Amino acid sequence: MRHIFMSSSRRDLLRCATVALVASACRKKPMPDVRHRPLASLPTTTLPWLSLRDHFIATVGPSAGQGSRLGPLLVLADATFAPRSRFPLHPHQEIEILSIVIEGDLSHHGDQAHGAMLKKRDVQLISSRDGMTHAEGNETDTSTRMLQLWFEPTSHGGAPAYFRRTVGIGSRQPVAGDDVLPLRCDAKVWWSDVRGTETVTVAAGRAAYVMALDAPVGLSTGVTLAVGEGAEVGAGEVQLMAASAAVLIIDLPRS
Predict the structure, then answer these.
(1) Distance of CA 114 to the CA centre of its chain
(2) What is the helix (H) or strand (E) element at residue 7, kind and residue range?
(3) pLDDT tens for residues 89-146?
(4) 52 Cβ partners below 8 Å, 6+ apart?
(5) Domains of the chain
(6) Helix (H) or strand (E) holding 92
(7) How far is it, in rounded angstroms, from Cα 219 to Cα 240?
(8) How far lies 150's CA from each of 8, 26, 154, 198, 241, in Å?
(9) Residues contacting residue 182 through CB under 8 Å, at least 6 positions apart
């Protein structure tokens, strides 16, 4: 009888363990599809005063107008200005323009906020709406690196509006798409200082774009992003791994 009791108990334990493993597997997030954008694949424009890489639709240079969008995200330009240089004044209408300073000082000139200076980790959102004229540049003696993102709005009209913030230090700091910098489209942008491991979860029907800003970043899918590289991440869960790296994370509906 003792032998029969022990066998029954072991069978019960094995059955419980199997149920627990199945339940755990059901809860586990699916492995996402990851589309790496290595530096060599990005259109690059090099001028005496400007170096620029475009991750989506190209803005300047021989590839201008080429490329594809990701949901409402049309442009992600990674630009480095030489000292004492700037774009000429130019118009925009019905576009959400997000500028993020990675290194150095960025000057802004235009219809509003003329001569405004943005420093490292400063962010400016211009909702151009019915139209405005502006230009970015570098009024200092050292280089300035900035990102500029263009989003297509889902509501239109009205006077142009300017918003600004400084990104805090830490995991998953808000950049835009909240009450402080309200994008007029379905998108959210974060800056994350990854030290160790951070999990990014992408909901069904959405995508994330992950970009390594200042140091390499590993993804649990096996992709490693060099500085300036990005990856489109589909629905599921992925871990970001770095000793210390700034990462841009954009959440938006999948095209």
Answers:
(1) 27
(2) helix 2-27
(3) 999 999 999 999 999 999 998 876 666 899 999 999 999 999 999 999 999 999 999 9
(4) 44, 45, 46, 59, 60, 61, 77, 78, 79, 80
(5) 34-253 (2.60.120.10)
(6) strand 90-92
(7) 5
(8) 65, 38, 13, 26, 28
(9) 125, 163, 176
